Amino acid sequence: MPALGAAAWLGGIAAQQSGRIAYAGLAGLGLLVWVLAPRLPPGGLRLLLATLVIAGAATTGTVLRHDAVRASPLHDLAAERATADLVGTVVSDPRQITGRAGPQVVVRLRAREVTSRGHRLRTGGSIVVIGTPGWTTAELGSRVIAEGRLAASDDPGTAALLTGARDPVRIRGPDPWWRASAAVRTSIRRAVAHRPPDQAGLVPALVDGDDAGLPDAVERDFRTTGLTHLTAVSGTNLTLVVGSLLLLARAAGVRRRWLAVVGLAGIVGFVLLARTEPSVLRAAVMGTVGLFAFGPDGRRRGLRALGVAVAGLVLVQPDLAVAAGFALSVLATAGIVLLGPPLARSLARWLPRGVAEAVAVPTAAQLACTPVIAGLSGQVSLVAIGANLLAGPAVGPATVLGLTGGLVGLVWPWAGRWCGTAAGWSVGWIIAVAEHAAALPGAAIGWGSGTLAVGALAVLCLLLGIALPRLVRYRAAGAALVALLLLVVLGVPGRLWSAASGAWPPPGWVLVACDVGQGDALALAVGRRSAIVVDAGPDPRAVDRCLDRLGVEQVPLLVLTHFHADHVDGIAGVLDGRSVAAVETTALADPPGGVRLVRRAAAAAGVPVATAAYGLTRRIGEATLQVLHPELPGAMVDGPGDGSTANDASVVLLVEVAGVRLLLTGDLEPPGQAEVAGLVGDLDIDVLKVPHHGSSHQDLDWLTDLRPEVALVSVGADNDYGHPSPEVVRGLEAAGAEVLRTDRDGDIAVVGDSSGGVRATTRQ
Fold first, then answer.
1. N or C: which end of the chain has fewer CB within 10 A?
2. Beta strand segments in 25-81, E
C-alpha cells in the first residue's frame, strides 16, 4: 500500500509539471514491468502492475482535469478579457486584501453558468473573484450573481479570475449545515472576544483554522518555533475533537458499531466546521491515519492506511501532489507511524506511557518534516521539538474548551464565555512558549535550501530517527538527551553557531540596508529567496554581493527612487543572475545619464520599466506597499537636466512586512517631506530609512514625530559630504530611535521581535 501511495504521488507531480513527461515516465515503467515480468514472483509482479495502474490513474486524472479547465468557455473568455455575469456557489470564506484599487475581497466560486457577449452558457469550473468590500457578506454555500471582467489564471486548476467584481447579488442562501457551521464559528469567536487579542485570535485558529484575527507577531513567533501547524487545520485538531467526542459517547453508554457511527459523524462535523477545502480534507484523512499508529499492529496498519490515503487524495484532488502542506502532512504522518511507536516504547521503559507517547509524537513528526521545512525556508529551527513538547499539553484543553465554548455559547452565551476564558488561559501558555522560544538567540539557523543541503539534512534526520529509539531506552541516555534539549531551549547551540559561522541573514529579517558605500540599496523580504529591492547603490558588485549573502534569487520588483548615480549605477548587480519581474522609477527623467543607464540595463535583461503610480497600494508576497510620493503624471516628464530637482522627486514607500511598518524615503528633502507629512498626517512607524544619507537638509521635527524605533542611514565611510549630520543623528536618538549607519555597522538587518517591536542586527 505505501508503494501505491508513492506511485500516485509521483504520477501527480509529474503530470503537474508536464503531461508528456508523465506519460514518458509511465511508458518507461511499463517497459520495466515487461522486462522484469518473467523473473518476478507473482506477488512482486502484481505489485508492479498495481503501481503502474495507480500512477497512470493519477497522471491521467490530473491531465484530464487540466484539459477540462482549458476547454472551458470561461478559459477562452478570460483570455479575451471579456466582461461577464456569473452564477455560482461560494466555496470559500471571503478574505480581505489590499489591492491597487484599495481594500478588496478574494473569494472562490464554483461556476454554474456564465453570460457574456450576449450568450448564456451552462458551465462548471472554479473561479477566483477579486471584488469590492461588499463581498465580505458572501456566505459559504450561498448562490450568487457576480459581475466583472474575466482574466486568465496561473493556477491550472482555476478556470479564470473575475476582477473588479461588483457587490454580489444573492440568489439563494447556504444550506442548513453551512448555516450551522457559520453559527458555531461565530460563537467560538464571541466566546473569546473578551480575552486579549493574541488569545482571541489563536483560539479560533486552533479549533477550526479561522486565523483572520491572529496577530502578525504571534504568527511570526509560531513560524520561528515550528508551531505554525497549530494555527492551521491539522490532523491533531481532528484527533482531539473526535477523540473527545468518542470519550463522551463511551461515558454515555455508546458501544461497538455505534461508536464508529459517532466517530464518523464527528469527522463530518469537523470538516464542515473547518471548511471542505483541500487542506482540511487532507488534515482529516491524515488525522484518521494517525489513529492507526498506536493501535494493535500499528506500523503495518498505519502504513497501509497512509498509502491508501495518499493515493485517494491525489486522485480526488490532483493539485495536492505539488502542495507543500500536503508533503508536510504526509511526512509528519509517516514519521508518527514509523518512528512514533518504537520511540514511545523505548521511552515507556522509564516514563509513564502517556508521557512517552506525548514526547514521541511531536519528535517523530518534527524529524520527518525538518528537511522539507529547510527546503522551503532555508532554515532549521533549533527549538521546534522543545517548543512543541512544552506547548503540547495545552493544545488539547485549548481545542476542546474552545469548541465547547462555541457550542455551549449558542444556547448560553455566558457559559460560552466561561469556556472561552479557560481556552484563553490554555493558549496563553502556548503563546508564552512561542514568544520565549522565538526570542532565544539562534532559535533558527540558516541551513540553505539547495539540493545538497536538503539531502544532507534528510540523511542526518534519517540516521537520527534510526538511532533515537535505541538511545532513549535507558534512563541515563534519556537524561543526557533531555539535558541537550534544555541547552537548545536555552539557546546555547544557537549562540555557538552564530559565533562560529557568523550566520547571515538573521532568521525572520524583514529589511536589510546593504553596505554599498555612498548610496542606497535596500532589500525587503517578501518570500523564500525573494525580495523587493529599493535602489541599487553606486556599485554593481557591492549590491550583488549583498543580495547573494541574503540568498535572494527572485526580485518581484526593483524600485529606483530617483536617477542619481548613487541609487541606480548598481542596477546591473541586481539584474545579474536573478529573476527580476519589473522595474519602477520616479516619473522625473532627470538626470538624463541615469535614465539612459536604467533603460539600457533593463532592456538588455528583458525587464519592463514603468513609473511608480502615486497612491498605489498593493501586496507583493508578504509585503504591502503604498506609494506616498511624488504626485506626478504616469508618463515620464523631463527635468532641468542637471539632477538638481531629482531628490525631491524620490519615490517614497510606506511598507508593512510581518507587522513591521517601514518608511523608505529615498533622498527626499524638506519640501518633499512637507508634502508627505501633509498627506499622511500623524504617522507612526517602526523603521525609518533616513532621507538623503542623513544630510543636514532635513525637516527634523517631522522625522522625530514619526517616532521610529530604528533609523537607518545608508552612507559611505569618510564621504566628502559630511553625511550623516551629527545634529540629525542626535535628534533621532533623543526621540528614542536606535540609529545605525552602514559606514560603521556594515549590512544592517531589521527583525521583528516577539513583543511587536523591532530590533536591528548588523554584519560588519
1. C
2. none
